[in-house]
Amino acid sequence: MDRQTPPSSPPHVLIFPLPLQGPIKCMLKLAELLCLAGDIDVTFLNTHHNHSRLLRYTALDSRFSAYPQFRFQTISDGLPDDHPRSVDRLGDLLNGLWTVTNPNFKEMLNSAAGDRRPVTGVIADGALTFALDVAEEVGIPLIYFETISPCGLWTYFCVNKLIEAGEIPFQGDDLDAPIQSVPGMEGFLRRRDLPSFCRTTDLNDPVIQLAMRECRQVPRSRGLILNTFEDLDGPVLSHLRSLCPNLYPVGPLHTHLKTRLEAQSTPPPASSDSLWQEDKSCMAWLDAQPSRSVIYVSIGSLAMMSMEQLVEFWHGLVNSGVRFLWVRRPNSIVGEDSVGQIQEELSEATKERGCLVSWAPQEEVLAHPAIGGFLTHSGWNSTLESLIEGVPMVCWPYFVDQHVNSRFVSEVWKIGIDIKDTCERGVIEKMIKDLMNAKGDEFRQSMDQLSKLARESINVGGSSVCNLNRLIEDIRSMKV
Description:
alpha/beta; 19 helices; six-stranded parallel beta sheet; 13 strands; seven-stranded parallel beta sheet
């Protein structure tokens, strides 16, 4: 099949995120940055389920209507509509992607999409390992986008070394034993700081096998996009370039996009990228709070906690005496049906200095002057958003790259406190007090320096701007 397009035709890139909130959020921002280039057709491939949620809770249609060269397309994730798609059922989603989405994706690439020109390039989430095989078979170049942190990704790439050195599976129960087989991290990485799947005792575990396949596929692609900037992750990027020479560190994407839009004479209307309904009433509540007096609490879009952990967090927050804005996402508590009474008691006990919402406009929250700290799951989007706004963190990671991120926050960048594997009210109380009082100014000094470097990277001539421009030129070259 001849897939070449006439020389005058613009390139057409298809962007395919892993169908989860975090990847969708930052890949939408990349899509908009590519639209601003003006001469690239962009198709964003969502699952039917997630696209329906985006249409329900956001104004994305209105936002992207400003770009005539952009369109959404949808594909099945292989799951029924009523499937919860929660983290405890993540295996179902992965199976659906491989058995249903994979063949549909191949069929899609093999045909021109409606009245649009054939796809000339693909940008896919690194976890979608089948995408490279499909693209190669069809004859379309593919660039991977790893939406996790570079430090987390580098530990993925070192899994084989860890196995060969006998460092995983772990021998014994000492999670503080140092790890020596991740180059560049020998001085501070412990067992407990490795990605959560490294704690498995079975190396045939599907998650660790997926991570290992990802690390085989990603270096075979045309390049690798990362949501970071050179001055934050330089040493890790040097290690990654040994395996993936063509890196595009173009972040922090949310600030990069905002800066580009502010330079437009008529920027598109702002819009959320959320799969949940945002409760913006919390912004009015924040307006009534003193400067840097509130700790923002959110465990992100996938993490879950037990009833016992919920109670410990509650007591830790209340006993700290600090004002707080707490996001309690629907279906984030194991045994959600029995939470009702706890929720009532929590609301009553904290209504004078606490605000509870089911979901919040996080970027706006972190930019609010009343926010003085962030109790976070250490997802990569959240970490970058907090860093840019100079909000120090208490880190309580859950899975994937979050354990590595939280170690970097505390030991490398010195911008927060890591309390992984701990959920005891006394510890939570003390760490919140430390963050909001004794250590806050120290962390903010480090964050101010990193935030300044981040903003320099997305100004004219900055490293992330140069890398984005190079990515755009490489996409343009894919049209012939």
